[in-house]
Design brief:
Elements: E1 7-10, H1 16-27, E2 31-36, H2 44-53, E3 58-62, H3 69-82, E4 87-90, H4 105-133, E5 136-141, H5 154-174, E6 179-186, H6 192-205, H7 209-218, H8 229-239, E7 251-254
Parallel strand pairs: 1-2, 1-4, 2-3, 4-5, 5-6, 6-7
The structure holds nicotinamide-adenine-dinucleotide.
Nicotinamide-adenine-dinucleotide binds next to α1, β2, α4 and α6.
């Protein structure tokens, strides 16, 4: 199978990191499946941007992954529409900042469902085809918070640690089958998700906007700058090349040196 005929599905890919990954695959000539919960009409310009990046085919899979079974459904739809799915990127994720004793149960459940249960169900749906073709790549977008703790982010930290565990377990199950499974662990990347959490962080820590950026977000990141979404896109593409076939079951931190400490 030539590289140009390959197909990728990225969950939560109308914004931020997911969109950058979609464009990076598009630029390499891959067919790209985009997902979010918004109706197709609302994301038309985003799909056009992925096509403009170079994707010969862009398909949209509308689904709210707050229902974890929806992730399996969109994988099945993508397989039906593309004919096969070579790469799955479990990227959809949400954040909530609150002390653990006040952490709303519904936010705990929603964060876990979207990031962890959704990834589990999508992986179950995509693996049979990959096993049959003896080729596949699964990338889970975890976070530096899958490797390190942080206050007021109990659900996010717990979920991302679990996603790293899921990555390792599945990688071992399929290691001999030409399928790799890896977790990318970004530090702070400037995206709408980070913009949205600024206010919660300001409230919880009693700090101003610039202070949150400087002391909470960039202080643990030795490069003292936000990671750009495109950096994650380029790494995802690299992991899907044949030269990355020995990279599996690992966590790759893109964190400006955070975890070097
Ligand atoms: P973002 O808010 O910019 O984008 C999230 C995307 O997911 C959007 O396309 C949104 O529509 C989609 N989405 C959200 N809820 C959904 C749902 N219920 N169903 C379907 N789609 C849904 O966020 P981002 O910063 O690009 O984050 C993407 C991933 O990267 C997340 O898993 C996040 O935890 C992880 N991450 C982000 C950072 C960061 O600093 N931005 C750092 C480490 C990890």
């Amino acid at each position: 199978m030539g590289e140009t005929t390959r197909a990728v599905l990225i969950t939560g890919s109308t914004s931020g990191i997911g969109l950058a990954i979609a464009k990076a695959f598009g630029a390499m000539g891959w067919r790209v499946g985009v997902n979010s919960y918004e109706p197709a009409a609302a994301v038309e310009s985003i799909l056009n941007a992925v096509a403009d990046a170079g994707a010969p085919e862009v398909r949209y899979f509308e689904a709210d992954l707050g229902d974890a079974s929806a992730s399996a459904r969109i994988v099945e739809e993508a397989i039906a529409q593309f004919g096969a799915l070579d790469v799955l990127v479990n990227n959809a994720g949400v954040q909530k900042v609150a002390p653990v004793e006040d952490f709303p149960i519904e936010d705990w459940n929603r964060i876990r469902t979207i990031s962890l249960d959704g990834a589990f169900q999508a992986i179950r749906a995509v693996l049979p085809g990959m096993k049959q073709r003896q080729w596949g790549r699964i990338i889970n977008i975890a976070a530096v918070h899958g490797l390190r703790g942080a206050p007021y982010k109990s659900a996010y930290v717990a979920t991302k640690h679990a996603l790293v565990g899921l990555t390792r377990a599945v990688a071992l199950e399929v290691a001999e089958l030409g399928i790799t499974v890896n977790a990318i662990c970004p530090g702070y990347v400037w995206t709408p998700l980070v913009e949205r959490q600024l206010e919660e962080q300001m409230r919880q820590h009693g700090l101003g906007r610039e202070e949150v950026i400087r002391t909470i977000m960039l202080a643990p990141q030795p490069t003292r700058r936000f990671v750009q979404p495109e950096e994650i896109g380029a790494l995802a593409v690299y992991l899907c090349g044949d030269m990355a076939r020995s990279i599996t079951g690992t966590t790759i931190a893109v964190d400006g040196g955070w975890t070097a400490k």
